[in-house]
Write the structure tokens for this entry.
Amino acid sequence: MVEQRPTPATDPIRVLIADDQRLVRAGFRVLLEREPDLEVVGEADNGVDAVNSCVSLHPDVVLMDIRMPRLDGLGATRQVLSATATRVLILTTFDLDDYIYEALRAGASGFLLKDAPADQLVAAVRVVAAGNALIDPSVTRRLITRFVRAAPLAGTPARVAVLTSRELEVLRLIARGLSNTEIAGTLVIEENTVKTHVRRVLAKLELRDRVQAVVFAYETGLVVADTSGPES
């Protein structure tokens, strides 16, 4: 069966590729430009150029490598998010870069493994461009287990208190990496009801997306990383 690619009803999603490896950028460009609803508007081989390109080109999404010269992906992410409406999708290797957690705290919309299949890359760009967060459950567990070690943040009980008991349940399940469908099955409620709870949780806690909800849940101690077993 021939794959049916979406026909854009509106302007294509504008993408900037920021990576210091020319072959990586070229590979991503080829994959993205096969899609009629995606347009690669530029490339950058260092963090400074990535920031400047986002300011001048106004991409919807930037694929941001972490390890780049002049300015790393963490610094570039902070500057991009403070100066533009561009959403950041972090690129990383499977062993996870030390900066990933900080990038998510800075407001990145998620992260993608560099060796992810082509269809996952394309789907990730669309998800992030739509204003949603991309967070892979298996990688999320590795990330949290490795990087969330700090004590709960000061002043968090008052923020948590605004949530209902059901919203608190939903937040804990989000932090465990469950999708809306899985949360609905776990709580035996409709998926649309889950979506409503998720929206309310984000609004009440003033969080941008599910990624920040995961970070919040672990930093406040609502969910504790299980570090007793081997890393998956």
About this structure: The two ends are 35 Å apart (CA to CA). Strands lie at 13-18, 38-44, 61-65, 87-92, 111-113.
